[in-house]
Amino acid sequence: MTGTVQMKKDRPNYYIVLDYIDSAGKRKRPWITTDIPIKGNNKRLANEKLKEVLSEYDSQQIDLSKDVLFTDFMIQWLKNLKHSISLSTYGCYNAILEKHIIPYFEPRKIKVRDLTPLNMQQYIDYMMKTISPNTVIKHLANISKCLDSAIRQNIIAFNPCKRIDMPKKVKYTGAKHYNEKQIEQLLNISKEDTLEMVIFLTVFYGLRRSEVLGLKWDAIDFENNTMAIKHTVVQGDKKQIRLDSTKNDSSNSVVPLPVIISEKLKQWKTKQLQHKELQPDNYIDEGYVCTQIDGSLIRPHYVSQHFKILLAKNKMPHIRFHDLRHSSACYLKYLGFDLKDIQIWLRHKDIRTTMMIYMNIDIEAKLSIADALNGKFKNFGS
Fold first, then answer.
1. Domain span holding position 247
2. Is residue 376 a part of any domain in this protein?
3. Residue 302 in contact with residue 236, Cβ under 8 Å?
4. What's the pLDDT tens digit per position in 325-375?
5. H or E segment at 234?
6. Is 310 a member of any domain?
C-alpha cells in the first residue's frame, strides 16, 4: 500500500489518498480527510498523518470482522503507532493507557462498535474525581485519535469523543519559583542528598529534568571549560529512555563551565570513583554524571517524587521540580539580565516562553510594592 497527501479544490484541509489492491484484485484509491488546514507548515503534519494511516493499514493484527473490545483495539492501535512517534511520546501514551484507560474499560467489556458518548462522559466523570481536568483532556485526546482510526477502518460511524461536553481546561496562571534566599536554602538542604548534583546543576543552568539526568562525563570539557547539552533521559512506560537529542534544536548547546561548577563536578567525579572502588562487582558505569550510589541512572519519576519529599521534610514551600528552571530564570532577572539574555541562557526556542516568566515576576513585584505602600498608608485609611 502507498499513499500521498493531496489537496481538493475549494476544500480547506489536506487529504490522504491511499493506493492499494483489495482482496478481490481491484485497485482502490480512497480519499481520507486529515482535518489539517492548508496553511503554514501544516503539510509536514499531514505527511506525519499519512505515515500513521499507512501503519494502521499495513500492520493490522486485529480481526475486524469480529466485535473487538475497545481496550484490545486501543492496545493494538498504540502498537501500530509506535514507529511514527517519539519514544517519549509513546511512553506517555502507554502510561495513560495502562494506568487509567485499561483499568476503567477492561472490566466493563465494552466493544469498539458499542462505544457511546455516554460511555465517554462517564469516563470523564470518574477520572475527574482523582486527576485534573487538563490531564483528563489529554486522556480524551489519545482516545479520540484511536477512535478516528476506528472510523477510517469502518468499525464505527462517528467518534463518541466528539459528541461530549469536554472538561474546561484550567488556565495556566504562571509557575511558582524560589527567590534568592530560598534557592540558597535549597542548595544547603540538598547537600549529601541523592539529588544534590541534580539540584545544583538545575538551579545554575536552568536545565530541564531530562537534560540534567542525561548529562554525561564525555560532554564535559574541563580543559576548555565547556559543557554540552545534547543527551537526555526521559521516563518511558516501564523504564528510562535515553535519547541523543534535546527537546528542540535550540536546547542543543554548549554552555560555559565556570570555576564553581568545574570544582563541584570534579569533587563529584571523585566521589563516584570512590563508590566504584567500594563495589567493583555491582557498580554500573554508563558514563552519567547524576547517578545513584551504585552508578545507576536516577529515574525521572524519582526526581519529582523525592524532590517533593525533600521540601516537605525541610518545611520549604512546595514547588514542582520543573519550577527550579523558572527559579533560575527569575534569579537572572533579579541580577539584571534582560529578556534576550535569559532566553539564550535557558535555551528557550520561543521568546514568548521567557516573557511568561517575566510577567509572573512583574506581578509578584507589583504585589510587593502594594504591600509596602499599604504599610505606609495604613494610618491614612478610613
1. 180-370
2. no
3. no
4. 888 877 777 777 777 777 777 876 665 655 555 555 554 544 554 565 455
5. strand 232-235
6. yes
